[in-house]
UniProtKB/TrEMBL annotation:
It is found in: Membrane. The lineage of its organism: Eukaryota, Viridiplantae, Streptophyta, Embryophyta, Tracheophyta. PANTHER family: OLIGOPEPTIDE TRANSPORTER-RELATED. It comes from Populus tomentosa. CDD domains: MFS_NPF5 (cd17417). This is Major facilitator superfamily protein. The chain crosses the membrane at residues 86-104, 110-128, 199-218, 224-244, 339-361, 381-401, 421-442, 469-495, 507-532, 552-571. It is a multi-pass membrane protein. InterPro entries: NRT1/PTR (IPR044739), POT_fam (IPR000109).
Length: 598
């Protein structure tokens, strides 16, 4: 009797070892096979992906941090027009990922979209480089002309919007592709994945830091052409490096449009709106887990009207044939629809924070341009380089959170994240109010000094005030600390809480917070300028010394203060994704099964 039992135990152990060797999360390797856990994914694959993210952020911030100075000094736009140009471009750049993410999830897959969009990005950088070196495309024939050539302006904006197009496929897919390298159903890999978002943002901040210091210094003291050429070469090298990592990646195959199943749920729910809901959610329709590759979602008690889509009618119970998806949806599809609807209030309440973040690339930089930027007697900091303090603040925040707060909070709360995602997001929103309040106080001090300066009174332009640029350090650092909580939290939230088949689109939702923030900033500038001009001196003038930017900052602080209460209202009522986990065999225990993701 013991011999058959021993054989059964041995067979189960062998199956357990095989389960551990392979990754059964519906991903495939580069040859289309079930990936080997040991040779694919995790950090060995993520490092290739993080490298190209570092390069892209270096390029992005090396250009955008100083672009408002380029528009005012080279193309000769006034402050208001330049700020709007930057906001429009940044808005398009961060809204385009909605289209790129949708195409990647539905048709191309993330790897192919990243590769294609990186080539478009390179095309934009190459055109930008040519606009600096080809004589007919240069701003002027001589240094210091009063207005740039129209052909240069066209080439410049065409290059910038080509970069926007490349970003549209690059940004939503790259980070979600990196997160795909970790198996959610494997305990050790899941813990590593929580750190992935933190270290991803450290790489992002390193690219940002070098972009707004080294690259901006070259732009201001050598030439824009040399700086853009360096960025183009760097991007080309890292795109090639990214491609070399192909054998180590885990790939998710596109699953078609994620919008169609949601529409089917809505139609089915409307058709069955008069049917009674079952007293037990277990009676709702669901496909057995062994028949599908993806993860199943458990029922939640929110938006219960949509549950009608999963109610079985008598003929559907007796009919063994395939059900019509426009009349009957699974619980998982219904819950996916609920997820998308539930994240909308969180997205909306994140917009005021994005409104604050976008000020760092426009008004904060212009403030720095009016202040004393000298270190010692000979070295002068470029105006945009003060932006690096935001990256320093974010790095400090992320490292402290990942290495100190999370281990402590895991022991204190029993939550593997330390604190829930929404609490992390809300904590960062408090920093935005403090940052805008400090910015308003510093700007008022700068204005008082400007009002007493004889050169400003005489109407001279580009006057350097006797006030150190490091007065701006607190507002950059505080906002950077807030980024480490809110922006990283939003990345995790929109990756984890959207349906698994829409994760690229989920990252696009995160990026659209900043995109919509740019458009909101442009709208707010126009509205504030229009309203305040009626009383005489407008808050946003042609230059900083004729503006009342401190009042604009106080307005942003007030908006964010009110928004925190609105955010808390929705966050307290949010229900996290209810996943039925299928853990790797070595990790199975009595608590396995349905898990509410924090």
């Amino acid at each position: 009797m013991e011999q058959p039992e021993n054989r059964k135990v041995g067979r189960e152990a062998k199956e357990s070892d095989e389960e551990e060797k392979r990754v059964h999360d519906s991903s495939v390797d580069y040859k289309g096979r079930v990936p080997l856990r040991r040779s694919t994914g995790v950090w060995k694959a993520s490092l290739f992906i993080i490298t190209i993210e570092f390069s892209e952020r270096l390029c992005n911030f090396g250009i955008t941090a100083n672009v408002i100075s380029y528009l005012t000094k080279v193309i000769h736009q006034d402050l208001k027009t330049a700020a709007k140009s930057v906001n429009y471009w940044a808005g398009v750049t961060t809204m385009m990922p909605l289209f790129g993410g949708f195409l990647a999830d539905a048709y191309t897959g993330r790897f192919s979209m990243v590769l294609l969009s990186s080539l478009v990005y390179l095309l934009g950088l190459s055109l930008l480089t040519m606009s600096q070196f080809i004589p007919s495309l240069k701003p002027c024939d001589v240094e210091g002309c009063e207005k740039a050539r129209k052909i240069h302006e066209v080439a410049f904006f065409l290059a910038m919007y080509s970069i926007s197009l490349g970003t549209g496929g690059h940004k939503p897919c790259l980070q979600s592709f990196g997160a795909d390298q970790f198996d959610d159903d494997h305990a050790e890999e899941r813990k590593k994945k929580l750190s992935f978002f933190n270290w991803w943002n450290i790489a992002l901040c390193c690219g940002l830091f070098l972009g707004v210091t080294v690259i901006v210094y070259i732009e201001d003291n050598v030439s824009w052409g040399v700086a853009i050429l360096i960025l183009t070469i760097t991007m080309a090298v890292t795109v090639a490096t990214f491609y070399l990592g192909k054998p180590y990646y885990r790939y998710r195959l596109p699953e078609g449009s994620g919008l169609t199943p949601m529409l089917q749920v809505l139609v089915a729910a409307i058709r069955k709106r008069k049917l009674p809901s079952p007293s037990n959610p277990a009676l709702l329709y669901e496909v057995p887990s062994y028949k599908i590759q993806g993860r199943l979602l458990g029922h939640t008690d929110r938006l219960t009207f949509l549950d009608k889509a999963a109610v079985l009618e008598e003929e559907e119970i007796t009919n063994e044939m395939k059900h019509n998806p426009w009349r009957l949806a699974t619980v998982t599809k219904v819950e996916e629809m609920k997820l998308v609807l539930s994240i909308i209030p969180i997205w909306l309440t994140a917009l005021p924070f994005g409104l604050c973040v976008v000020q760092t690339a426009t008004f904060f930089v212009k403030q720095g341009a009016t202040l004393n930027r000298k270190i010692g007697h000979n070295f002068e900091i470029p105006p945009a380089s003060i932006f690096s303090l935001s990256a320093v603040g974010m790095i400090i925040s992320v490292v402290i959170y990942d290495k100190i707060l999370v281990p402590f909070l895991r022991r204190a709360t029993g939550n593997e994240r330390g604190i829930s995602i929404l609490k992390r997001i809300g904590s960062g929103m408090i920093f935005s109010v403090v940052a805008m309040s400090v910015a308003a106080l510093v700007e008022r001090k700068r204005q008082k000094i400007a009002e007493e300066d004889i050169d400003v009174l005489d109407g001279e332009k580009n006057v350097e005030l006797p006030m150190s640029v490091f007065w701006l350090a607190p507002q950059f650092l505080i906002l950077g600390l807030g980024d480490g909580f809110t922006l990283v939290g939003l990345q995790e939230f929109f990756y984890d809480q959207v349906p698994d088949s829409m994760r690229s689109l989920g990252m696009a939702f995160f990026l659209s917070v900043l995109g919509a923030g740019n458009f909101l900033s442009s709208f707010l500038i126009t509205a504030v300028d229009h309203i305040t001009e009626k009383d005489g001196k407008g808050w946003i003038g042609k230059d900083l010394n004729s503006s009342r930017l401190d009042k604009f900052y106080w307005l942003l602080a007030a908006i964010n203060s009110v928004n925190i209460f609105v955010y808390v209202f929705f966050a307290r009522r949010y229900t996290y994704k209810n996943v039925q986990r299928r853990l790797a065999a070595t990790n199975l225990n009595k608590d396995d099964g349905m898990e509410l993701m924090p």
